[in-house]
Design brief:
The chain is built from two helices and seven strands; from the N terminus they run ββββαβββα. The chain is an alpha+beta fold. The protein has one domain: Nucleoside Triphosphate Pyrophosphohydrolase, CATH 3.90.79. It starts with 5 loop residues before the first strand and ends with a helix.
Length: 140
Amino acid sequence: MSSSPIPAVIAVVVHEGRALLVRRANPPDAGLWGFPGGKIEFGETVKDAAIRELREETGVHAAAQDVLTALDVLVRDAGGDIRQHYILIAVQCRWIGGEPIAGDDALEARWFPIADLKPNTPAMSADVDVIARRAHELRT
């Protein structure tokens, strides 16, 4: 257990009205659909981390653009105490090429029509639908 927040990124790729999501294999949010992402490595920029995680989890190539938002993810134990605190930095990425293939810690990877994303349908990490819509609006 860390007493300091853990910085991490999520790569938000929106292309042709669809958002690229992965079904997470590991906690937090194991089994849920969310954006590809993970911890930032020492000496790595936020944008470089987003592109690396995207490539590792999906094989998709993209160019990192702007930071969209940041989210706090608090992981609690059975007693309600905070076990881990992640700060997720959402980076908008412009799709360059490739079709998603699940890799690294992703169980599945695929495109979802943004119009079909609704809270908990499919079972998603927090705010996936909101962030996907924001990214889509910024691209149009």
